[in-house]
Amino acid sequence: MTARAAKKDTPYGDRFSLFAECLWLGVLTAVACVPLVTWSAALAAGAAAVRRTQPDGPSPGLARRYLRDLRAALPGGLAVGAGSLLLLGFLLFDIRLVLAQPALPGRPAVLALALLAAVLVPAAGLRAAARWASDRDWRTAVRGALADSRRDPGGTAMLLGAVVICLAVTWQLPVIAPLALGVLALAAVAVQRRTERMGRAVRT
């Protein structure tokens, strides 16, 4: 059965099929994120799966393809994941230190900068994961993600909103936490494609 025929046979249409695959991707991504430092590679593999699903529709073998993408993403993704976690940990420690020093000169400015950097880390990480899904190179993906964050602040705000919503929902209902990762992969790909369209519009 072709992908087009499979989409027609889906009771609730293409959008429900995409949502269902994102939930399954969330479970796969959650398992791959267990070591923590693998989070970038896990989300990159999820984003790669979403990029294939959107034009082609759902197809069997999602887990097999996800594992193949995960193996491809791990070599550079481990360094990106570990580095981002270290940076986030340092920023959170810095925020805690600043909060404990009421008399620190320039305290409001330092605190604001640290908070801004801390919230931008996960957004840049999601952008890098979506970039890797198309570039297949982590250095290019990270550089592109940083450039995209500056060029498209609206898209970055959307990603931060997705992260906040997923955190709020999973805080209320922790059992769905694994499923939220698939939704984040979908959000990362959607924002990446938005940024790509903006870039093409500027060039034309």
Give the gist of this structure.
By secondary structure, this protein is mostly helical.
Which regions have little confidence, pLDDT < 50, spanning 5+ residues?
Answer: 1-12
Number of helices: 8
> Could you spell the SSE succession in H and E letters?
HHHHHHHH
Main beta-sheet strand count, sense and barrel state? none
Rounded mean pLDDT is 86
Note the overall shape.
globular
Number of strands: 0
Radius of gyration: 18 Å
Q: How many individual domains?
A: 1
Beta-strand content estimate = under 5%
Task: Give the CA-CA distance, first to last residue.
Answer: 39 Å
Helical amount: over 70%
Structural class: mainly alpha
Organism: Mangrovactinospora gilvigrisea
Transmembrane segments: 23-50, 70-93, 109-130, 176-193
Keywords: Membrane, Transmembrane, Transmembrane helix
Protein name: DUF624 domain-containing protein
Key terms for this structure?
mainly alpha, 204 residues
Element layout with pairings:
Elements: H1 3-9, H2 13-32, H3 39-56, H4 62-99, H5 107-135, H6 138-151, H7 153-172, H8 177-203
Helix pairs in contact: 2-3, 2-4, 2-8, 3-4, 3-5, 3-8, 4-5, 5-6, 5-7, 5-8, 7-8
Characterise the protein shown here.
This protein is mostly helical and 204 residues long. It has one domain. Helix 2 runs antiparallel to helix 3, helix 2 packs across helix 4 and helix 5 crosses helix 6.
